[in-house]
Amino acid sequence: MAGIPERFSAFRVHNDSDGYRSGIEEISLDDLNEGDVTIEVAFSSINYKDALAATGKGKILRRYPLCGGIDVAGTVVESESDDYAPGDPVLVTGSGLSEVRDGGYSHYQRLDSKSVVPLPEGLSLREAMALGTAGFTAALSLYRMEALGQSPDQGPIVITGATGGVGSLAINILTRAGYDVHAITGKVSEFDYLEGLGATQCLSRHDLYWGQKPLETARWAGCIDNVGDEMLSGLTRVIKPFGNIASCGLAGGISLQTTVMPFIIRGVSLIGISSSNCPYPVRKEIWQRLADDWKPPKLEEIANKEVRLEDMGDTFDTMMRGGALGRTVVKVGNG
Length: 335
Ligand SMILES: NC(=O)c1ccc[n+]([C@@H]2O[C@H](COP(=O)([O-])OP(=O)(O)OC[C@H]3O[C@@H](n4cnc5c(N)ncnc54)[C@H](OP(=O)(O)O)[C@@H]3O)[C@@H](O)[C@H]2O)c1
Known about the structure:
Layout: E1 8-16, E2 19-27, E3 37-46, H1 48-55, E4 66-67, E5 71-79, E6 89-93, E7 108-111, E8 117-118, H2 125-147, E9 157-160, H3 165-176, E10 181-185, H4 191-197, E11 201-204, E12 220-225, H5 229-236, E13 239-247, H6 261-264, E14 269-272, H7 280-291, H8 299-302, E15 305-308, H9 313-320, E16 328-331
Parallel strand pairs: 9-10, 9-12, 10-11, 12-13, 13-14, 15-16
Antiparallel strand pairs: 1-2, 1-4, 3-5, 3-7, 3-16, 5-6, 6-8
Helix pairs in contact: 1-9, 2-3, 2-7
The structure holds NADP nicotinamide-adenine-dinucleotide phosphate.
NADP nicotinamide-adenine-dinucleotide phosphate (NAP) binds at residues 47-49, 133-134, 137, 161-167, 185-187, 205, 226-227, 248-252, 273-276, 319, 322, 324.
């Protein structure tokens, strides 16, 4: 284990007789779960799910204690896998991190090689985490929509929760892929930001009125929804024939009230997006595209905030208030 210090810092989440709590601790490699690839972590990121886990506002971890952080990127320092050798740059998003395995908020991490993705050419370790689960989710949504025939000539795609991590990256990725993108946001003060990412129309979520009929006038050819609840319920009524709705998030709630009419009359498809459980071959293919033709041109602008492990608290709170704007990268090591 030459090169790995005996003790290093990590952001750990506990839930025991002393209550639910999270924070920085000094740990050793033996405190981490087993894994056949050990990495020195360079960067992680902050996603909505990380904020839920850190604050205890959502039940994300399924065992305790664990390091937080559903994303990680770094360099292999030890490997029992034939697929990886010391010095290889790698990343993992989702795949049970900060759920059933220790996550990326640690200076070293032991990973399961079955979920490790070699850093694709065209991305730095920082860029991989600027994208992170949010970018992967946006790209997975587009990937699955296009698998069902979505194409730019069908008309505009609307993105909800537009100023957040998934929303911002979805706008920029879809714009690059040739789509006309509309944005729905709660932050009317950020219309300029959204237009800068490519949105051709911005709507305030507070001014939306969907109508109550099972089918209302169709406005969009597809949708990537980060909000759920009334937003998703309303969207099912206004998507054009053979359009697709990628259901990603629950920032506004988890319920869904609709009828079969959008599905059997308009042929609308409701696609479930689960970035954490995405099959490995698709995962690798999507990361290749994120490094290539789906790399968002405004990535640095979207992810211009960087914090250290010790300073993540404010970002967690902002996210829980619905105040996220773009992405926050966590600088862990020297990557
Ligand atoms: N399915 C998956 O695999 C997957 C992967 C990643 C994320 N997600 C989910 O997708 C959502 C977005 O994640 P993220 O990391 O992008 O989070 P984020 O950066 O915190 O963005 C969430 C955005 O949602 C909007 N929002 C927040 N509270 C709201 C409310 N009460 N009602 C309506 N809109 C609200 C806000 O955007 P505006 O102010 O612009 O409206 C906010 O910026 C989360 O629910 C997350 O759990 C799912």
